[in-house]
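User: Structure please.
Assistant: Input sequence and predicted structure:
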Amino acid sequence: MENALSSPDSLLASLLYKKTPDRLVLLTGPSGSGKTTLCARLAALGGEAGLSVAGILCPAVYEGGLKVAIDQLDLSTGERQRLGERADGASEGTVGRWRMDERVIARGNEILARIADEDLILIDELGPLELEDGGGYRQALSLLDEGRYRRALAVVRPALLGAARARWPRAETVHLEGVPG
């Protein structure tokens, strides 16, 4: 099933209150469209509704209006670590324009491995490291493959949506096109 997102609140309400067991939503949209912001809103509303919320968000860090880094946020504990920083050129450990911290990725995999049967799981994001290279947050793939969730939302880049849909054919797909936070 594929939908365009009419409003963030409609997705939030659907995920939080629709009684569909083992529901997986793939959230996709262009860079800067508000995917992480939407995930943060969903985590907050889920917590307010008394749901157990777990997973990882990767919020951007800005300085002077420029995205300079990406953090990793554990939704269960609030622990925040620097996941990646802008790289000047391609080198070992870079993904696109980002130099990733393998220790923080390993910590993310520990976080994801301990998740079991939560009310709401958020994974921001599954990218080329996971879906093409077998690295990155590989524990997220196991978590989703094994169905260790009641409701899950995974952010997937548009270029990798086909791979994600092939892996999880029952998943719903929601396209975000710059919905304001």
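The mean pLDDT is 87.
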